[in-house]
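Project outcomes to date are best conveyed with an example. Our students and postdoctoral researchers have been running inverse folding experiments weekly, and each run begins with a structure described purely in tokens. The record below, which covers 325 residues, was selected by the lab manager from last quarter's runs and is presented without edits.
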């Protein structure tokens, strides 16, 4: 009977682990984008109707005869507005998804935080526990400790620590959704897709030039501006996406971080070993573990002072210890 229970538990254990490792579905994002895209399309059609002198929609609302003063146009609503519909629909879906903390977006922020912790472990050549203690420590204390290290960029490390804490507060439901967006955009989207966004912006500009050139050759009638609006919508969307990427780009170039990672890779040490051994779902330190790490850091500082043979510092330290007793 006992063997049967053991075998049953052994069969059940992998399933629970599989659930934890399952990726969040992106279907809610697609549904939200579709809903907001439809709302955007209706609003754009209403805006055209309000701005024009006269609008006559054909059946199913696909095309419309529009009159602006003496000018008359035939507008295809689907072709003209679909880039705007998809772009604004996706933007509103992302905002709503982060605000409602949809699992798909929470998963993006979670993996960004984990990646930042691993980066700190490599940059500081520290273990996972030491990184957690730094995250819990007071920012001023971190600044004093890290300022003494010549092998790290203080501003870069402080920024990463700040956004790790912001991302963790978002995951815990204590921070605003804009903090989650900023963490993901700064340290994942911009770093991985900035070149893609820039390339798409140039591609959109090239497409717009071709369409305008074709229009100049009279292949596109002046009374049917839908292809022109389609090209303008694509370029507008790409430029807005490029502007967002630039807005969330760090002031310093990523070359500094890349050089640090190359140096750490050459030096080896416990930084890379800790990253390789770190689990993605590492538990937070307990209070006793945190106090132990702080005591160890204090002991290391005392040893460094003694090694420097600074007699005045040793004397002051001894006097402080005597006064406390």
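After processing, the design step wrote out the following sequence:
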């Amino acid at each position: 009977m006992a063997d049967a229970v053991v075998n049953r538990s052994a069969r059940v254990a992998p399933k629970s682990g599989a659930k934890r490792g399952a990726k969040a579905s992106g279907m809610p994002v697609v549904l939200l984008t579709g809903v907001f895209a439809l709302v955007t399309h209706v609003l754009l059609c209403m805006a055209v109707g309000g701005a024009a002198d006269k609008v006559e929609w054909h059946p199913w609302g696909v095309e419309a005869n529009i009159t602006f003063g003496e000018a008359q146009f035939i507008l295809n609503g689907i072709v003209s507005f679909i880039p705007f519909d998809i772009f604004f629909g996706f933007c509103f879906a992302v905002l709503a998804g982060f605000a409602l903390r949809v699992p798909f977006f929470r998963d993006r922020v979670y993996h960004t935080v984990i990646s930042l912790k691993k980066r700190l472990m490599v940059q500081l050549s520290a273990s996972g526990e030491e990184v957690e203690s730094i995250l819990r420590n007071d920012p001023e204390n971190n600044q004093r400790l890290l300022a003494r290290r010549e092998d790290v960029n203080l501003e870069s490390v402080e920024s990463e620590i700040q956004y790790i804490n912001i991302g963790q507060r978002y995951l815990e439901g204590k921070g605003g959704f804009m903090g989650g967006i900023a963490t993901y955009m700064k340290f994942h989207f911009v770093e991985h897709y900035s070149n893609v966004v820039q390339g798409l912006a140039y591609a959109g500009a090239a497409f717009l030039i071709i369409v305008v050139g074709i229009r100049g050759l009279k292949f596109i009638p002046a009374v049917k501006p839908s292809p022109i609006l389609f090209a303008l919508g694509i370029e507008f969307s790409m430029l807005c996406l490029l502007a967002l990427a630039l807005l969330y780009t760090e002031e310093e170039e990523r070359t500094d971080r890349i050089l640090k990672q190359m140096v750490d890779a050459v030096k080896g040490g416990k930084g890379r070993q800790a990253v390789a051994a770190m689990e993605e779902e590492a538990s937070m330190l307990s209070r006793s573990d945190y106090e132990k790490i702080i005591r160890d850091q204090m002991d290391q500082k005392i040893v460094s002072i003694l090694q420097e043979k600074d007699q005045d510092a040793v004397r002051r330290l001894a006097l402080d210890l005597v006064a406390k007793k």
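The beta strands are 54-57, 63-68, 71-76. Residues 135 and 165 are 7 Å apart (CA to CA). The training component of this project remains on track.
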